[in-house]
């Protein structure tokens, strides 16, 4: 049964142990409390608010898409440049957001926003700009403009379908009306397919890329830990 605005309920779970970017949640017994669109996972006296995560951005053909999933290696990671981040909010546990661009058949890093307590080092000789206006991010690297040495597949989406929204992790490609898939070799786009109809067919059949709920009565398998892991994964085989 879907949760309606104003509906308040608790769902019990047990033996949950979830690792999110190094943060361990280890309750023995807890519950999920839902009021409207707000979810709170409570563990005895402790509670952690979980929300959907801010996706990376991909600019393609003059439009802005969300990075909905990938399968491969070499995707940009700030840690490769010794840029340490911390959670920016419950909507950004990893503490950063990357903006990419598909230009002239190349997959390029354009901008990086981070939340950091230290002075971040340069990336390719570019120092970040400190954000003065209150924001979840403290620094922004602009005009990075270098090819990502990524090899594999990428899926992107825009025109998010609100009825597909889940208040946990990242959303898969089936949550968007306009979806595309790229095959990339060392940052060079070798093929591009519009998968919008494929995702529409998947929605029609009720085959969501990611489970909407861990609870059996809501179509899940009852495994909360596995559900959280899948919701936070951005791999295509789970998105």
Task: Give me some keywords for this one.
239 residues, mainly beta, ten-stranded mixed β-sheet, four-stranded antiparallel β-sheet, 16 strands, disordered N terminus
Any overview of this molecule?
- Helix content is 8%, strand content 41%.
- It has 239 residues and is mostly beta strands.
- It folds into 2 domains: 8-50, no CATH class; 57-238, no CATH class.
- Strands 7, 8, 9, 10, 11, 12, 13, 14, 15 and 16 form a 10-stranded mixed β-sheet that branches. A 4-stranded antiparallel β-sheet has the order 1-4-5-6, with no helix packed on it. A two-stranded antiparallel sheet has the order 2-3.
Which regions are unreliable across 5 or more consecutive residues at pLDDT < 50? Answer: 1-48
| Proportion in helices | under 10%
Task: Kindly estimate the percentage of residues that lie in beta strands according to DSSP.
Answer: 35-45%
Give the terminus-to-terminus CA distance. 23 Å
- The radius of gyration is 19 Å
Tally of separate helices: 2
Rough outline: globular
Order of helices and strands: EEEEEEEEEEEEEEEEHH
Number of domains: 2
Largest sheet: 10 strands, mixed
Total beta strand runs:
16
Mean pLDDT: 80
Which structural category fits the helices and strands? mainly beta
